[in-house]
Design goal:
By secondary structure, the protein is an all-alpha fold. 83% of the residues lie in helices and 0% in strands.
Length: 157
């Protein structure tokens, strides 16, 4: 690989907002599988009905999907505003922000994890997996507030 190809690849990864969320899908599936195996090996289960747990996990999954859609829409609106009214150089600020990529990746990870946890609720409710999904959702709420603040500050004149 020549230096030019290496540079182009590095620039593509640096300017792409989809790579880390796509990797977080795989990380979410791996994490939910590992935590579910730990729960089953140690016999940890919640003292909660499976119907209630499925309802809670379904709500977490739906809410996380909503966060993914809203944050993606915010990025697209920011790019549209920047290209129409502001300078196109602001588009790079939107796409290159590592923290913004981390926020969207966290939303996608938690969505994937909660759907994976929902699928694994059978006769019993896995304790550690359910706690990670629920507390991950709360963490992502705080991350979403940061995301909104960051998007607003990026576009200010």
């Amino acid at each position: 690989m020549s230096w030019l190809d290496h540079y182009r690849l590095r620039l593509y990864v640096r300017n792409s907002i989809w790579i880390f969320p796509a990797l977080s899908i795989a990380a979410g599936l791996i994490a939910v599988t590992l935590l579910n195996r730990i729960d089953r090996a140690l016999g940890w289960e919640m003292n909660l009905g499976t119907g209630t747990a499925q309802t809670v996990m379904g709500t977490v999954a739906a809410s996380m999907f909503t966060l993914v859609v809203v944050s993606s829409s915010a990025v697209l609106v920011a790019v549209q505003l920047a290209s129409a009214q502001l300078t196109p150089r602001i588009i790079l600020l939107v796409y290159r922000s590592r923290l913004r990529k981390l926020c969207i990746s966290g939303f996608v990870f938690t969505f994937t994890f909660s759907v994976g946890a929902l699928v694994r609720i059978e006769d019993t409710v896995p304790l550690l997996t359910s706690y990670v999904a629920a507390y991950g959702f709360l963490l992502n709420l705080a991350l979403f507030l940061y995301f909104v603040d960051s998007m607003g500050k990026t576009l200010r004149p």
